Amino acid sequence: MEHLQGRDLLSIADLDAQELQELLQLAQQLKSGEINLKCDRTLGLLFSKASTRTRVSFTVAMYQLGGQVIDLNPNVTQVGRGEPLEDTARVLDRYLDVLAIRTFAQADLKTFADYAQIPVINALTDLEHPCQILADLLTIKECFGSLEGTTLTYVGDGNNVAHSLLLGGALAGVNVRVATPTDYQPNPEIVKQAQELARNSTEIVITDDAIAAVEGVQVIYTDVWASMGQEDLADSRIPIFQSYQVNDKLLANAAQDAIVLHCLPAHRGEEITDAVMEGKRSRIWDQAENRMHAQKALLASVLGLV
Question: Catalytic one among 41, 129, 177, 283?
């Protein structure tokens, strides 16, 4: 994994297919205890958006590697008072070994990467959520033994998670179908990029037909209908997305061994029912745990520990 040392991860597409598979393999080895890595490095968390899983999983992963974590809350740093990102990036570069950023604009993330020499990791932007997809792919691999040839259907809003699933699925050999209302489809440029990565070897489908999209698939995935920053739109979206709810009726169209994933937090009774979340096909809690293992592998790789 030496080729990942010092590199940024701003998009899941910053990896190639082999690097992605190697990261997932390392995550499995770290999770099983087959490999035990230690370091004396410092991770900074610069989060402008609320976070439970991302914050805690990154923190625990770094502690388990033997490193330190500094929470750079924008509300108590000069970032929150308008210090230019370029200046902050160059200062943090002198203190930290790696920086994970959770923010709104992908352009802000890129600015940090341009001005800091340390690895910069996308811990979520409005455009992408690559670390989530590393955990998702790890979970699917655990369940089915292989990623290649499996089919995943994402049902709901064509948001940052959908974008990274399209790109990550294309790299990993996973067929990806995205079912959304017509006016809520994923960014066309991301779809085009995913199609180019797939190179006709995997299926990339964008549709408004949720039932057809889940027919015979191994993985059904959903997310909230209104992402962070869109809370004022949540109620108005419910009638638009109601037919895209992941429930027992929708699940009946999938393969008999299909699993259900959700990146959390969930609005139970909206995009997913209690029965499905707590049902035998749910792998949501394994998926949440795998955030830590996948990110530990990523941190170990960009820090040159492997």
Answer: 129
Q: Would you say residue 229 has pLDDT above 80?
A: no
Sign of the dihedral defined by the CA atoms of residues 286, 288, 291, 293, in that order: negative
Q: What is the 3-state secondary structure (H, E, C) of 203-249?
A: CEEEECCHHHHCCCCCEEEECCCCCCCCHHHHHHHHHHHHHHCECHH
Q: 53: annotated binding-site residue?
A: yes
Query: Of 87, 111, 113, which Cα lies nearest the Cα of 99?
Result: 113
Give 6-47 pLDDT, tens digit per residue.
999 999 999 999 999 999 999 999 999 999 999 999 999 999
- Candidate list 28, 132, 218, 295, residue with the active-site label: 132
DSSP 272: B
List of domains in the chain: 2-128+291-302 (3.40.50.1370), 131-287 (3.40.50.1370)
- d(C-alpha 170, C-alpha 227), whole Å: 24
Q: What is the pLDDT of residues 123-180, one digit of tens each?
A: 999 999 999 999 999 999 999 999 999 999 999 999 999 999 999 999 999 999 999 9
Q: For residue 51, give the amino acid letter.
A: S
Instruction: Check the annotation: does 54 bind a ligand.
Output: yes
41, 102, 163, 177: which is the annotated catalytic residue? 102
267 catalytically annotated: no
Catalytic residue among 97, 136, 157, 223: 223
Residue whose token pair is 């590393």: 134
Catalytic site includes residue 129:
yes
175 labelled ligand-binding: no
Question: Is pLDDT above 90 for 57?
Answer: yes
